Amino acid sequence: MKRKMNIVCVGGGPAGLYFAISAKLRKMDHDITVVERNPAGVTYGWGVGYWDDVLDSLYRNDPVSAREIQSFSGVWDGVEVHVGGKQTAYLGGYGLSMGRKRLLDILTERATDLGVDIQFQREVKDLSEFAEADLIVASDGVNSRERQLYANHYQTDVLVGRNKYLWLGTYRVFNAFRYAFEWTPAGWIWLHAYYLDAERSTCIVECSPETWEGLGFHELGVDQSMRLLEQIFERHLCGHSLINQMRSADKLPWHNFRLVSNNTWYHDNVVLIGDAAHTTHFSIGSGTKLAIGDAIALAAKLDEHEDLHSALMSYEVKRRAEVIPIQRNAACSMRWLENVEDYIGQDSVHFAYALSKRYRLQQPWWRYHLHLATQISALRTLRRKLTSARRWHYARRRERLAGTRTHPFHGSQRASILA
């Protein structure tokens, strides 16, 4: 888009902020405003997880903010699967994670430095407030008010998951990603736990609605619920407390996951990005990846095309092709966990393997043998060393992409959690 544009982003999460940064980098004289209903520095959420491909995209697009994000990212190395009192099973792999607030602080500072006008504590009641805008970017999340205004046009579909889930934190630092399945008289309940920062981890609690009700969470107050969860997961928390952000609520904020998709992603001069356009179940950790991908793609298409309609159409075509397979995998993962009792009776090693391929049913023949080898301590250590070498390879590649030297994962090393 060669001409100067007046752009408003409704929602100051990762998608909206990173789009503003990306658009400014391509054309500095765009007038871009980000409107966020929360106060500065306030966010509801814990950690965000991602992988090397996201960090590669960040470095290609904006090395300045990428370096900051990398410096505050931690690495969880390997996956531990705990099923009651059974033998611990291990999976390979690694991932990057950081606190959501830290990420938003970095993006806010970078956007402000580039001249983006960020307006906090502003509630948008009607899009007529932005009658002068050439483009309105709806980056206001899964419950997007802007999307709901044109729900018939977008033909939004929402698939509601069966299980109950809850975002919490803990002062226990998990160096590996941990699945912790615990049996209770009401049924199975489990944690998805991973590194947040040097002092905390993110914990997502999940269970069936029958277990949730059987344990009394529909009636228990916040303090009672927290104590009960700390008792259930006592051996994983090792004496550390769970943390609840929503202190003013009467009950813990349990949810059913909502898998959002839309038949079209734009209407006139309003376009959807991030969770407003699509959601993916937390069990595959792709929300940040898709938000960043949307932001970069939309900014690039605006820069490539002469007219707005062509840019928005091209953006939707490109991103839909990339998002649909990930959403399909997320739906498979969600459904597998909703039927976890069909698999959890296996020994822990076989159960962990089933968990690892819950949305990738076709695995190479050697994957299972690698999984068995990973259960042997010496071979698991060797695999971690090879994984660490691969991380360094990706880091050096990013240095070349950015055209400058960076110290790979120095923030993670500061947290002392590298293998």
Q: Which secondary structure elements does this structure contain, and how are they paired or packed?
A:
Layout: E1 6-10, H1 14-26, E2 31-35, E3 47-50, H2 52-61, H3 63-71, E4 74-83, E5 89-99, H4 100-113, E6 117-119, E7 135-138, H5 145-149, H6 151-154, E8 157-170, E9 177-184, E10 187-197, E11 200-207, H7 209-214, H8 222-232, H9 234-237, E12 242-243, E13 255-261, E14 266-267, E15 270-272, H10 287-304, H11 308-338, H12 348-356, H13 365-374, H14 377-402, H15 410-414
Parallel strand pairs: 1-2, 1-7, 2-6, 4-9, 7-15
Antiparallel strand pairs: 3-5, 4-5, 8-11, 8-12, 8-13, 9-10, 10-11, 14-15
Helix pairs in contact: 1-4, 1-10, 2-3, 2-10, 2-14, 3-4, 10-11
Main β-sheet: number of strands, strand sense, barrel status?
9 strands, mixed
**Corresponding CATH superfamily of one domain:** FAD/NAD(P)-binding domain
Please give the CATH class of one domain.
Alpha Beta
Q: What is the overall number of helices?
A: 15
Radius of gyration: 22 Å
CATH topology of one domain: FAD/NAD(P)-binding domain
Give the total of beta strands: 15
- Proportion of residues in extended strands: 15-25%
- The secondary structure category is alpha/beta
Description:
The chain is α/β, with parallel strands linked by helices. 42% of the residues lie in helices and 23% in strands. The chain has helices at residues 14-26, 52-61, 63-71, 100-113, 145-149, 151-154, 209-214, 222-232, 234-237, 287-304, 308-338, 348-356, 365-374, 377-402, 410-414; strands spanning 6-10, 31-35, 47-50, 74-83, 89-99, 117-119, 135-138, 157-170, 177-184, 187-197, 200-207, 242-243, 255-261, 266-267, 270-272. Strands 3, 4, 5, 8, 9, 10, 11, 12 and 13 form a nine-stranded mixed sheet that branches. It has a six-stranded mixed sheet with strand order 6-2-1-7-15-14. Helix 3 runs antiparallel to helix 4. The longest helix has 31 residues, at 308-338.
